Amino acid sequence: MQPSTSRPAPSPVPGPGPGAPLLWQTARVLAVRDETPRAKTFRLELPHRIRHMAGQYFILRLTAPDGYVASRAYSLSSPPEGPDGSTVIELTVEWLDDGEVSGYLHEVVEPGDELDVRGPVGGFFAWDGAGPVLLVAGGSGIVPLMAMLRLARQAGRSDLVRLLVSVRTPGDLYFADELPGPETTVVYTRAAPPGAGRGPGRLRLDDVAPLVRGGETVFVCGSAGFAEAATDLLLAAGVPTPSIRVERFGPSG
Fold first, then answer.
1. Stretch 19-28: mean pLDDT, rounded?
2. 53 FRET partner, CA 20 to 30 A, in 65, 66, 145, 186?
């Protein structure tokens, strides 16, 4: 799952220090947690403290004994731990069919293993927690947006956030135990749980419009098709184009 932003980052990315290059680090796996049958969160300890913003991602690299190297980009689901950074991050990874990196992570990696990572990467699709935001996620696109929600809750400013998640079924919902709250709305497209106030179906204008307050920055994350459809709905709801930031996820294994 490779994130790509709709435009280049306009400013330097927070990292180990001003102007410092993003170097590879060997992280130790502290824990592996199931999110859905096809998604896991990997809690990693870095040897060096690093600063990141909610919405950024890391590059993860695997090297085979014969020297073959494969690397993929995975979004951070963990919020920044403090102004001076942290040595612990969490990456949430979807298992893709025939994915050489995601398959290895899901089938082989366990606590105590070591993984090479580099980051944080991405400045445009990142939130500093200072202003109101509307977050619109499709499926696994919730991962970087969950970091934003966690940041707001951690700072006691959940009033800044509205999160709308579109997902196929209850079993496909990432962070299901933690997600519910007054800031969040979940829309099911194929099968809704018993008692859901809305029947299954694709995202509609009446799902989006009530969450638009005006003046907020909007972050949209999901597949290319979802991102396009969600952006059209946001524009129809009156959100100005410059206020919308889009990250599209596509399969990369």
1. 82
2. 186
